[in-house]
């Protein structure tokens, strides 16, 4: 019986079985950022421990960094203090800090792949839920808590339960105007936010085979929103071509040797899965969330569902969502007025996300509707640089968007980019939880970047296929 990539990589990295029944897993790459690391470093200091493998540990700042200007010191003294602490910890423990000064800063899940740090067959850990993003390369990538960040810093290992594996196959052709974001929102809608608990998700089928690495990252990023501990796509030629020549990718003969290993980690054709789910690409439309979890969504042509279509044990949460969002069941999602439009985040803050929007803005000549605040926030300084080199910053600005510096920005609003009051935001990010975007009463609608742009120029939720004549 063959093995899945998850089984192979997990077994290769298992140091030993612990008395608890968990496995001690060797971590190949540890990514660190300013929010979840200070306490972990403090715990190391208290115990007089060192970082065991500083050469396998990389840090950057993303959550708290302002996007209007990155000039130091930041106006927010707490943000400034967090960054000073990160810089001090990196210096003391010999960790490479991917800094704004060097032009290497960005959202941790954007820069890992961008620099070639993320590679197939790796185990990757980071003190951030959306570490699952890196699974796009065929890595087992795990979001961890602060005490686990401490454990990985001190031992380069993590205590982990072995997961079950669910293979999710999406086959066929996506219709024009349907993007990777729609695919993952559709999957989460079908399987639920708890559906993946205890599982790793393996994404397979012709849709994922054809996807670019950036599209695969969008999908894997939101695995955690479907309850899965991680998600991955088997590495293939697309993966290898993306990685070739990047700063931390093996070069020359070492690349060929790495390629042989990467190939060997692919799931075997006769691999056994704990579950297999099949979906048809043709069934997927542009998706918009209407509620307070990423599963509470509808096709843009649809209506906010009635309570009666949900199982009894979900109805309390559904009614809470209607109340919080101020939406009536049975009403159309299209036409809901938006106050803010945000394009960015580790889900959709990569070059191709912005490039796709630029093509539609250019072709249509549409501008942001007066009264809508529209933000474009690149996921990294490198993405920002490429956008400027392509002249896309000007396209966005001429269309009425604010073109900002790199960071997490309004995805979590730990910086000044926040909703005000009950503002409704069309957002390309990954979470629509209550208060997620900085205002305790602010409301978030998740959708693809092109759908966000359509909402920005229409002033309301709109079908991007109609707004931009996508056929
Ligand atoms: S962009 Fe959002 S989800 Fe991604 S790392 Fe930053 S805060 Fe977390």
Question: Could you give a quick summary of the protein structure above?
Answer:
With 471 residues, this protein is α/β, with parallel strands linked by helices.
Task: Characterise the protein shown here.
This protein is of the alpha/beta class. 34% of the residues lie in helices and 17% in strands. The protein is built from 17 helices and 19 strands. It has helices spanning 5-13, 38-47, 77-93, 108-114, 146-155, 180-191, 206-210, 213-221, 237-243, 252-264, 315-325, 345-348, 351-364, 381-389, 392-398, 449-458, 464-467; strands spanning 14-17, 23-26, 29-33, 57-60, 96-98, 123-126, 140-143, 157-160, 164-171, 199-204, 230-233, 275-280, 287-289, 297-299, 340-343, 373-376, 402-403, 424-427, 443-446. A 5-stranded parallel β-sheet has the order 5-4-3-6-7, covered by helices on one side. It has a 5-stranded parallel β-sheet with strand order 17-16-15-18-19. Helix 2 (38-47) packs across helix 5 (146-155) and helix 6 runs parallel beside helix 8 (213-221).
Whole-angstrom Rg: 21 Å
- The global form is globular
Q: Give the helix level as a range of percent.
A: 25-40%
| Count of helical regions | 17
Give the biggest sheet.
Answer: 5 strands, parallel
Low-pLDDT residue intervals, each spanning 5 or more residues: none
Q: Kindly name the structural category.
A: alpha/beta
Widest β-sheet, arrangement of strands:
5-4-3-6-7
Mean pLDDT: 98
Overall strand count:
19
Strand content: 15-25%
The end-to-end span amounts to 44 Å
Q: Could you say which small molecules are bound to this protein?
A: iron/sulfur cluster
Q: What would you call the quaternary organization? A: single chain
């Amino acid at each position: 019986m063959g093995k899945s990539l998850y089984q192979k990589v997990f077994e290769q990295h298992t140091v030993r079985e612990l008395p608890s029944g968990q496995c001690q897993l060797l971590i190949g790459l540890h990514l660190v950022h300013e929010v979840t690391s200070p306490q972990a470093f403090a715990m190391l200091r208290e115990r007089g421990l060192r970082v065991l493998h500083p050469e396998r540990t990389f840090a950057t700042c993303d959550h708290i960094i302002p996007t209007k200007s990155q000039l130091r010191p930041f106006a927010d003294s707490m943000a400034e203090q967090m960054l000073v602490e990160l810089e001090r910890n990196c210096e003391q423990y010999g960790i490479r800090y991917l800094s704004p000064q060097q032009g290497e800063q960005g959202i941790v899940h954007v820069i890992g792949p961008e620099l070639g740090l993320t590679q197939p067959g790796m185990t990757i850990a980071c003190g951030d839920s959306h570490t699952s993003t890196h699974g796009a390369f065929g890595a087992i990538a795990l979001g961890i808590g602060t005490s686990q960040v401490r454990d990985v810093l001190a031992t380069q290992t993590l205590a982990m339960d072995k997961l079950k594996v669910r293979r999710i196959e999406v086959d066929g052709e996506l219709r024009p105007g349907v993007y990777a974001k729609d695919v993952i929102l559709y999957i989460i809608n079908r399987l639920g936010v708890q559906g993946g608990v205890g599982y790793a998700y393996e994404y397979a089928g012709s849709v994922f085979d054809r996807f670019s690495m950036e599209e695969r990252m969008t999908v894997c990023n939101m695995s955690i929103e479907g309850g899965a501990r991680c998600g991955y796509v088997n590495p293939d030629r697309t993966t290898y071509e993306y990685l070739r020549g990047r700063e931390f990718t093996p070069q020359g003969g070492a690349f060929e040797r790495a390629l042989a290993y990467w190939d060997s980690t692919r799931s075997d054709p006769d691999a056994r899965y704990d579950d297999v789910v099949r979906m048809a690409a043709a069934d997927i439309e542009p998706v918009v969330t209407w509620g307070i979890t990423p599963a509470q969504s509808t096709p843009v042509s649809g209506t906010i569902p009635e309570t009666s279509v949900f199982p009894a044990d979900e109805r309390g949460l559904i009614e809470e969502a209607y109340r919080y969002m101020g939406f009536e069941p049975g009403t159309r999602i299209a036409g809901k007025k938006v106050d803010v439009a945000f394009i960015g985040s580790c889900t959709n803050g990569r070059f191709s996300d912005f490039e796709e929007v630029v093509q539609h803005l250019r072709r249509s000549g549409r501008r942001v509707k007066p009264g809508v605040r529209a933000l474009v926030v690149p996921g990294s300084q490198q993405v920002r640089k490429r956008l400027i080199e392509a002249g896309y910053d000007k396209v966005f600005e001429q269309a009425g968007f604010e073109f900002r510096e790199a960071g997490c920005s309004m995805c979590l609003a730990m910086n000044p980019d926040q909703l005000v009051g009950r503002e409704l935001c069309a957002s390309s990010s990954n979470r629509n939880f209550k208060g997620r975007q900085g205002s305790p009463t602010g409301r978030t609608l998740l959708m693809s970047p092109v759908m966000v742009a359509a909402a920005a120029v229409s002033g309301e939720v709109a079908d991007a296929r109609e707004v931009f004549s996508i056929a």
